[in-house]
Automatic annotation (TrEMBL):
Record PANTHER family: HELPER OF TIM PROTEIN 13, ZINC FINGER PROTEIN
Species of the source: Staphylococcus rostri
GO molecular function ontology, one term from the record: zinc ion binding
A biological process from GO: protein import into mitochondrial intermembrane space
Protein name as catalogued: CHY-type domain-containing protein
UniProt keyword annotations, A-Z: Metal-binding, Zinc, Zinc-finger
Cleaved signal peptide residues: none
Domain CHY-type: from-to ranges: 8-89
Keyword Zinc: yes
Length: 105
């Protein structure tokens, strides 16, 4: 299984900050190449500032992990779907409000 760092509260990537039914993805950070459930988890565990993925990496970079089935997808795929393409689990649509923390959008 892919290791998810941070303040996780279960095996589906929910954390102390975001832990509703639909909070089931982790995001790999460009700066440290580690999966964290959210930006707060990253910033509490790391001493460096978070780096956002540049737009030209969205198509190629697999930086999103589905916590339910462990499927990794590209940033572009993640932005286009509402459910996991592999296990159909619903993702949290409110994550869109936080894209700028993770992606250079
Ligand atoms: Zn980092
Ligand atoms: Zn968190
Ligand atoms: Zn899945």
């Amino acid at each position: 299984m892919t290791h998810v760092y941070g303040a996780t509260v279960d095996n589906e990537t929910r954390c102390t900050h975001y832990h509703t039914e639909v909070d089931i993805i982790a995001i790999k950070f460009k700066c440290c190449d580690k999966y964290y459930p959210c930006i707060h988890c990253h910033n509490e565990a790391e001493t460096h500032p978070p780096e956002q993925w540049p737009a030209d990496t969205f198509e190629q970079t697999k930086a999103i992990l589905c916590g339910v089935c462990q499927h990794e997808m590209t940033i572009q795929t993640y932005m286009q779907v509402t459910h996991c393409p592999n296990c159909q689990s619903l993702f949290n649509s409110r994550c869109q409000l936080h894209y700028h923390h993770y992606f250079d959008v």
